[in-house]
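Appendix B. Raw example, untouched.
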Amino acid sequence: MPERTPETHVIDYRAAEQLLAARDPRGAVKLLDSVIAAHPENTAARLLRARAFFLAAQLRPAELEFQIVLEREPDNAFAHFALARTLQRAGRPEEALRHFRLAAALDPQPEYLEAARFGKAAG
């Protein structure tokens, strides 16, 4: 296998974005694994891999990746929202509601606000 370089990691990251857009989350995860192994601090790659895990219905790995992103970027509204969706899908609505509300507080987008209220109404 050829030596991995920063350039090949960028190419792998961009290819993973394309695979995710084409609904191939498992292919995206495979590409991102090498990127993250070489650059574990790369939050963008971790966020993309978390999204890929979520779309592949691998909820526990998705949750762990979103948590790593939030440890580094606690004000990342999208990561809170995506973690909330992951927790919701895993049948943990109380934990999900907390992250929906954090997402809405950080970035009052209509989708985030609706999700925060939805959890409250379903209470």
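End of appendix B.
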